[in-house]
Amino acid sequence: MEGNAIAQFVPLILIFAIMYFLLIRPQQKKMKEHQRMVSSLRRGDQIVTQGGLIGKVSKVKEDGELLVDIADGVQVRVVQSTVAQVLNKTEPAKDS
């Protein structure tokens, strides 16, 4: 009777393990990569937002916002976590 109860839980455990390795783990890895990309944004980077705006970062604010130039004389405030892709990365300023 006790062996039968354990045998009933083995398929559930296998399903959970498969779901973890195929769904949960890759999603966590993708989230970490996105967080690393967002935290490394700096002035001059050309970005694409999740809404499809393409612009150049003009200022990185401390409260999780960016000022982004989308046209000559047009700046928008963008939440940092909505950046979908970095098109052109600028080089860090060299210390003299």
Automatic annotation (TrEMBL):
| UniProt-listed GO biological process terms | protein transport
GO CC, any one term: plasma membrane
Query: Heme as a keyword?
Result: no
Topology with respect to the bilayer: Single-pass membrane protein
One Pfam assignment: YajC
Subcellular localization is given as: Cell membrane
- Mind listing the UniProt keywords for this protein, alphabetically? Cell membrane, Membrane, Protein transport, Translocation, Transmembrane, Transmembrane helix, Transport
Where is it mostly found? membrane
Classification via InterPro entries: Preprotein_translocase_YajC
Task: Give me the segments passing through the membrane.
Answer: 6-24
Q: Quaternary arrangement and interactors, per the entry?
A: Part of the SecDF-YidC-YajC translocase complex. The SecDF-YidC-YajC translocase forms a supercomplex with SecYEG, called the holo-translocon (HTL).
Provide the family line: Belongs to the YajC family.
Q: What does this protein do?
A: The SecYEG-SecDF-YajC-YidC holo-translocon (HTL) protein secretase/insertase is a supercomplex required for protein secretion, insertion of proteins into membranes, and assembly of membrane protein complexes. While the SecYEG complex is essential for assembly of a number of proteins and complexes, the SecDF-YajC-YidC subcomplex facilitates these functions.
Q: What is this protein called?
A: Sec translocon accessory complex subunit YajC
The species is Poseidonocella sedimentorum
